Backbone:
């Protein structure tokens, strides 16, 4: 993400009824995806063409019915008490479902929409009522300002937050929510309030959405307002009831080492309190154990020191057998580490150097 560009918010675009107002320069090169989306939204087709992010596999092309997007937007507006005329900010890409849905929420809710090109630090002087951010932006804004007060109600998506940041954001005075969803579910279908005294330890499904689990505790979702759509995910969860769940990790990331199944996200959560730099847990093939636990960590660090830290929080069978140091993690536009791409690049460099 680039640094924030200067945008003239006195420039306005209004729909034919004058109810939906965009503040910002639609001709700015960084805002081109917004124009593309508006053109697609206003055409005669009943769907919007969307591509998944590709962070958990190959990007997929999908046709999302516009009525599904409208229904999803209305649910979010109702759930978060966002009302007509309030100010919303879009500072994530409208080329992906998260940004598209901020556009639809503004259209459906008749909001005043302020637009910034995607950047790591989306700064503006206006006080906003409703914002969608990715973790990368949250970290940068919090470290710069010490709060997110001017951003109103904030929903965070695109990647998960670690324990350190959930604890930090709990101090916030304004409502902040972690979101759970994917392109297939038309953005988020569940929210977890992480700020204030009424913060929650679980995701709460939006009205009309029911959660259940299948094999290996994989989350299934039934979404009434999407023509009774049934979605079977690769996410491992702890189901509390049909409305609430705790996210544990991804089934397609599970490591089987010597017959013991480990969930990398659980190990990462344990290590997040001790490691201050970017890292992730993965695996590589091993003749004896089937798979070895490995740790990829950004920057230069002493291997023995890392092993010592791992011993403090990880059981013997959970500890990484190998540690790879990475100059820089490859990331998606939302700031999510692209583990397979980073690992492939790291192993390729390592093989050349060895």
Residues:
């Amino acid at each position: 993400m680039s640094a924030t560009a200067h945008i003239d918010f006195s420039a306005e675009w209004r729909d034919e009824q004058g109810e939906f107002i965009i503040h910002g320069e639609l001709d700015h090169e960084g805002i081109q995806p917004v124009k593309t989306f508006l053109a697609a939204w206003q055409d005669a087709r009943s769907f919007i063409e969307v591509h998944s992010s590709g962070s958990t596999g190959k990007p997929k092309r999908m046709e999302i019915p516009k009525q599904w997007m409208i229904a999803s937007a209305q649910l979010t507006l109702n759930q978060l008490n966002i009302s007509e005329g309030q100010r919303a900010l879009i500072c994530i890409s409208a080329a992906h479902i998260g940004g598209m849905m901020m556009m639809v929420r503004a259209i459906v809710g008749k909001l005043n929409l302020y637009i910034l090109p995607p950047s790591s630090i989306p700064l503006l002087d206006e006080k906003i009522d409703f914002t969608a951010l990715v973790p990368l932006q949250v970290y940068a804004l919090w470290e710069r300002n010490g709060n997110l007060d001017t951003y109103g109600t904030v929903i965070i998506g695109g990647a998960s937050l670690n324990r350190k940041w959930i604890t930090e954001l709990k101090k916030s005075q304004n409502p902040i929510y972690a979101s759970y969803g994917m392109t297939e579910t038309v953005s988020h279908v569940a929210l977890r309030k992480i700020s204030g005294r009424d913060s929650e330890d679980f995701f709460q499904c939006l009205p009309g959405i029911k959660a259940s689990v299948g094999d290996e505790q994989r989350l299934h979702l039934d979404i009434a307002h999407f023509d009774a759509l049934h979605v079977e995910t690769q996410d491992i969860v702890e189901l509390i009831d049909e409305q609430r769940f705790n996210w544990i990790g991804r089934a397609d990331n599970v490591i089987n080492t010597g017959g013991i199944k480990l969930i990398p996200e659980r190990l990462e959560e344990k290590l997040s309190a001790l490691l201050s730099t970017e890292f992730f847990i993965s695996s590589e093939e091993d003749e004896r154990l089937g798979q070895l636990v490995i740790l990829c960590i950004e920057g230069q660090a002493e291997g023995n020191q890392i092993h010592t830290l791992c011993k403090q929080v990880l059981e013997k069978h959970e500890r990484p057998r190998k540690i790879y140091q990475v100059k820089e993690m490859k990331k998606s536009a939302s700031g999510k580490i692209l583990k397979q791409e980073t690992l492939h690049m790291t192993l390729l460099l390592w093989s050349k150097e060895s």
User: Anything to note?
Assistant: Confidence is low (pLDDT under 50) at residues 1-5.
